[in-house]
Structure formats: C-alpha cells, structure tokens
Fold this sequence. Notes:
CATH superfamily of the largest domain: HUPs
CATH architecture of the largest domain: 3-Layer(aba) Sandwich
Radius of gyration: 30 Å
Helix content: 40-55%
Bound molecules: adenosine monophosphate
Subcellular location: Cytoplasm
GO molecular function: ATP binding; pantoate-beta-alanine ligase activity
Number of strands: 16
Pathway: Cofactor biosynthesis; (R)-pantothenate biosynthesis; (R)-pantothenate from (R)-pantoate and beta-alanine: step 1/1
Largest sheet: 7 strands, mixed
Enzyme class: ligase
CATH topology of the largest domain: Rossmann fold
Main location: cytoplasm
Amino acid sequence: MRELERNRDAPDTGASTGLRSLAVIGAGRTGGSVTPAARAAGLDVRVGTRGTAAVTAGGSDITLLCVPDESISAVCAEVATATDLPAYVGHVSGATGLDALEPAARRGAQIFRLHPLQTIPAPGTSLAGVPAAVTGSSPAAAEVARTLARRLGMVPFDLAEEHRAAYHAGAVLASNFVLTLAETAADLLTRAGVKDARAALTPLLLSTAANWAGAGPAALTGPIARGDEETVRAHQAALAGLAPELLPAYTALADRTRAVAAVAAYKNQGGTPVSTPKIVRTREELRAALAPARRAGTRIGLVPTMGFLHEGHASLLRAARERCDVVVMSLFVNPTQFGPNEDLAAYPRDEAADLAMAAAAGVDLVYAPAADHVYPPGFATTVEVGGELTNVLCGDPARRGAAHFRGVTTVVAKLLNAVGPDVAFFGQKDAQQAIVVRAMARDLELPVEIAVLPTVREPDGLAMSSRNVYLTAEERIRARALNQALTVAADTARTAGEGSAIRDALAAAGKVLADAGIEPEYLEARDAENLTVAERFGDRPVLIAVAARVGRARLIDNVVVQVVQVVQGA
Ligand code: AMP
C-alpha cells in the first residue's frame, strides 16, 4: 500500500515515453471517465466509437479501446485498418485476453491491457487512486500502459497474461461475490423477521471492509476465529430449517474461513507465517529445493496428505515443525488407493486453503505433483505389505481390499524416496494405514522414523476427516455415533476389566450405532500391533475399529484399549 501511495504522490509526466496523444474508442462508463482524466493530464484526446475507430485512432500515440468485451476484437480490426496505425493499442477489459487485439498486433502495433480494478458506475467517474492491472505484449507496451495509467491518476500494477483469469476471479470475489453475500445475509435477516435488513447490515459490512483493508486476516472476528465450532453447528442447524439452500455456501465459506483464521492465529502468536511455503510440482524441483538442507545435514520431516486440510493434518504439521528443521508436506490425491467405485473424482480439493494452513503451521515446502508425474506411462512397480495386515478391516476383499493398501504403500514409498525424510508423520485416525506403513518401513529397512500422532476430533468427538464435508447437517449429527460407540466399547472394557470378553464391548458399541441408524461396514477388535483377532482384553493394546457409510461419506474411526493400563491413542 505504501508503495502505491508513493506512486500516487508522484504521477508520471509521460515525458520519458513521449506520450502526447490518446485515441479513446468508446464513450461509455470507462471511456467517459478516461477521456476527462486524460484531458486533465494534458493529453491530446480524440474520442471515437465503433464505425469511426480507424479515423480516430490513426496517428495517435496510443489507442485505448473502451468498448464492451464482445466488441473488442471487431473494433480492433477496424483500428487495424487505420492508414497511420497507432504504435500502441490497448483495451480496458479484465476478462479479455491480449489476443483480442491480434488484428492490430498483426499489423505491427504493440498491444496492452489496462484494467481499472474498480467499479466505474458512470461516465465522469474519477480514476484517481484506482489500482489498474497492466499487461503488455512486450516490456515497452507494459511500460506505456503503466505510464498511461499514471497519467490518468491510477496506480498500476503488473499482471502476467497467464494469470488474467485468476486475477479476474479475484476481482469478482472481492466485488460481485461480496455483494451477493451481503444480499444473501439481508435475505436471511428478513426471513428472521428483521424489517430493514440492508440498513441493519450496512455498518457491519462497511466496517468489515475497512478493518480488512487495514489489518488483513487479523481483522477476522466471530465464531470460527474463536474456534467456537458449537456455534457454527448451531448456524448450520438453523439454516437447515430456515434456508437449506444456503447450507452448502455457508459450509464452504466456513471451511475457507478456518484457513484464514489459521493464518491469522499464527500471525497473532507473534510471527509471520513461518513460511510462505514454496510449492514444487516435480521430484526434480523437490530435490533441488531440499539439496541445501540435505547438504547441511538438517533434520527433514515429511507429512503426507491428500489435502483439504483440517486440524488433524495441522497437528501433524505442527509436530513436524517442532521436531524437524525442514518440514515438507506432500499434497497428492493418490489415485491408486481409490477403488473403481470410490470417490476419487469427488474427493474434496482446495489447494489455496491448504497452502494457507501449511503457512500457518510453518511448512517450508509443499510437494504437489500431478498424477501423471507420480505415475507416468509405463509405471509398473508396486510395493505391497503381504499377510494379515492388509487383508483385514479396510483391506478385507469385500471392503476396500488389499489393493487400497498397495496404493498407499506404493505412494508412501515413492514419497519417502523423493523426500528422504528423517521422520514421516501419520495419524492414528488411519490406524491400519499407520501399522501397514510401519511394517513396510521395517521390512524394506527404510531409514525413516514413522511417527504416529493421536486422532484430532471435533468438539463432539467426531474424528476430523476431509470426507466429513460430504455430510449433510442431519448426517453430521448422526456421525457422532461412531466415536460414541467406540467410547462405550472402551468404557465397557474398562468396567469389566482384565480378561473380559471383547464381544460384550462390541455388542454395546453396535447398539449405539444401531440406535443412530448406522450399519457398520465393520466393527472389530484386533491386536493393536499385529491386527490378529483379539478376544479378551488383557495387557496387550486392543484396537477397536469401525467403518461405516453415513450418507455419501465412508467414515472410519478407532480407539485403542488396554485394560491394564489404558492408552489414549485415538
Ligand atoms: P489424508 O489427507 O486423509 O490422507 O490424511 C493425511 C494424514 O493425516 C494421515 O496420516 C492421516 O492419518 C492424518 N489424519 C487424518 N485425519 C486425522 C485426524 N482427525 N487426526 C489426526 N490425524 C489425521
């Protein structure tokens, strides 16, 4: 901002570029605002419209097309017929590419875009201080566009052509979508009985915008910033009754807000995010980025994830940050661990939010390869842990099957090879996965420590999972039964004590699930280390694991019970 203000204080005179004359094609809102600003800046301005574009443009230093997006190409073709073609031809659209100016470029003009990042409601709107995105077909064209913007009183910033659509989406988010949100909020208040909802909301909306302009993510207040998920759920329940069509939007925005809150919380703790994590997409970039750390012999930590991060992932990232010098997070939805009828295509993805959470947790490097980079044509090697471990629970052929774990161990082996970490971090939430990965590392003598961290839960006990996003409000409430069932099983075991039959604990857990209308895919007790069937509680830890479909979501959870000395592992 300071940089922008400095620029504003020192408008460019244009002397350096010899900019004297400007042809403005179009006399609408933007053209009608550019023209007076250019005249006030001392430029010789001619104004034309479609039909007179060639005559108007001929002989000008710069021709600026201020016409509707869909006409740019046609009007540019007219300009290109001018006998004395202008050296520079630009347009003012945010959504349209430079390619719309091809007709002028073909005849030798340099082309540019100059997009005012502000709504221009009428001709004669002041452009003073308006930020303007500038893209040129050459450094000279970009410089001319910057100079013109400054002469008009605007504050230019550079935008690469390849990021035009992303930039424009950002503009739509900040303007159109904010209006949509405000209108939606007003509609909700009206339904809640508030009389003049717009008047009631206006001070809040304006002060929020002003606070954000001053403080960025630190200006975030409200239940999500406070970590008050109870209130968020109350909102969702209220919406389910009063405005169910708004639930998906609310839920998506709540997720997004959690990512913003994570960054804000980190900054509030006195730091900038430890990192703006560097994102790499190939093993070559990854190796190059890690080379200095490896040479220096520092400790590298890896947290493999499939993204759509939540607090469970964040706990692994924080542990890695604490224990390691360099933290690498992989972000890869691994196709080979999904069965043909599973949710690969629908698996939730939000790379921007993941990067924000990674920054908040202090990740140094995010490895986010494309699927065909990990599995190029000809890929034919897999890593499989044999025996019981991968054939029971989720690995049962009637469920996800051993192929699921083959996909997991293959990708984890590849990630371990690519990153070469000292420690890799996994969650107890996927207990069988952690056991299988440990077995692989042991059997293949991989020089890595496999650290397994406790399951992170929502306040009501539901294990956090990227797949929870599939749950409707009603299913979300029913899904609590998974953890409740496991808790009942653990309590039953503790009460009955050493030697008690596991089937009694499972029966009690099964009843909780049945009461919630949940039919488990499995609810089983197995030795927590080797996954053999366990029959009685004793001095060995017992893993009680459950998998169940709730609506679209296949959820898993587990608890580890040791009646002699209870281990809070899950
Ligand atoms: P995913 O992105 O689902 O593949 O998970 C990446 C890692 O995060 C795995 O090691 C998971 O076990 C772990 N994880 C997922 N959910 C949780 C949770 N609720 N608590 C702790 N770790 C989790």
